[in-house]
Amino acid sequence: AARAAQTFRPGLEQIAAYRAGKPAPVGPDGRSIKLSSNENPYPPLPAVERRLAEILPAAIARYPSIAAPEVTAVLAARFGVSPENLVLGAGSVEVAAQLIHALTAPGDEVLYAWRSFEAYPILTRVAGAVPVEVPLDAAARHDLPAMAAAITERTRLVFVCNPNNPTGTVVTAAELEAFLAEVPQHVLVVIDEAYVHFDRDPDSPSGIEAFRRHSNVAVLHTFSKAYGLAGLRIGYAIASREVAEALRKAAIPFAVSRLAQEAALASLEAEAELQLRIDEMTRERQRVCEALAAAGLGFAPSQANFVWMTAGAESARIAAAFEARGISVRCFAGEGVRVSIGTPEENDAVLDVIAGLA
Ligand code: PMP
């Protein structure tokens, strides 16, 4: 084949494309269990399926509303903010891209903890900005004092992923407040709360409360995790009017489909039903953690719908043991293994593997 004659933007060769969680292999019992992407293991709520069936023909041939006024109004009312404070995207990852594109010029810095969500370095580099990664502390938690110390004149954005992916750890409200008190006003602090619905720690901060108190705070939420709409792609930011206006300029036109908007609306109306599933997932998380403790395996305390096994050099071996059972997990070689929480039956299979590792 002919070699491409195009040139690509400088630095692109250093970027590895986003690596999604692997599909599950087939286990000895013929089952495949995908626990590699922190998805919701349940089928869509009946109300969501009904709503999608109702709108299906019209929603396909026509462009969606860019303003998405209904879902925006419901979310604004729920959080007690103005619709002007809300910006939707095709998943919160698109909103994260909007933030980076709207706030950084080439050479500006984007700061976040590492390890954290793998899209942060990719989106940062693609935008021509410079990633600054501050290691998590020994307990796999954000080291907020070190992050505050790493802020420079070039820092435009700080992502605080809370609970953190892939470790499931959280910062406390007091730690976050102390951090925000130190962050200069020119820096926007983005609290990525993709997993906030699973957080049961009474000391955890509320991103929305932080947004109310600090004009340089924005919050990212998603319908992909607790709401189970990962395949439909819808997430949003709550930010100051000025930041929100800038994000709308950086958005991809029509990225959020009408199907996604309507499914989000139906989910927001079915909160009680969703809450039962979320409660079950947090109970199941507890069960997996107890099994890990009983087996003497290291893990970080999790407030998300996944658990981080601090397996270090054993990570590849442990991931292979899961895969041999038809369970896909996320392996960070030499560091750890992230196992998403599935249905009780799926977690039973996880417990079997854990027992075998003891
Ligand atoms: N933030 C974090 C911390 C995540 O883990 C993810 C999904 N892996 C996202 C944002 C993006 O999710 P989505 O684009 O589906 O909203």
TrEMBL record:
Keywords: Aminotransferase, Pyridoxal phosphate, Transferase. InterPro entries: Aminotrans_II_pyridoxalP_BS, Aminotransferase_I/II_large, ArAT, HisP_aminotrans, HistidinolP_aminotransfase, PyrdxlP-dep_Trfase, PyrdxlP-dep_Trfase_major, PyrdxlP-dep_Trfase_small. It holds the Pfam family Aminotran_1_2. GO terms for molecular function: aromatic-amino-acid transaminase activity; histidinol-phosphate transaminase activity; pyridoxal phosphate binding. Its EC number is 2.6.1.57. Residues 19-40 are annotated as: Disordered. One of its GO terms (biological process) is L-histidine biosynthetic process. It catalyses: an aromatic L-alpha-amino acid + 2-oxoglutarate = an aromatic oxo-acid + L-glutamate. The keyword Transferase applies. Its cofactor is pyridoxal 5'-phosphate. Residues 33-354 form the Aminotransferase class I/classII large domain. The modification N6-(pyridoxal phosphate)lysine is found at residue 225. Aminotransferase that catalyzes the conversion of aromatic amino acids and 2-oxoglutarate into corresponding aromatic oxo acids and L-glutamate. Homodimer. NCBIfam families: hisC (TIGR01141), PRK03321.1 (NF002878). Belongs to the class-II pyridoxal-phosphate-dependent aminotransferase family. This is Aromatic amino acid aminotransferase. It comes from Leucobacter triazinivorans. The lineage of its organism: Bacteria, Bacillati, Actinomycetota, Actinomycetes, Micrococcales.
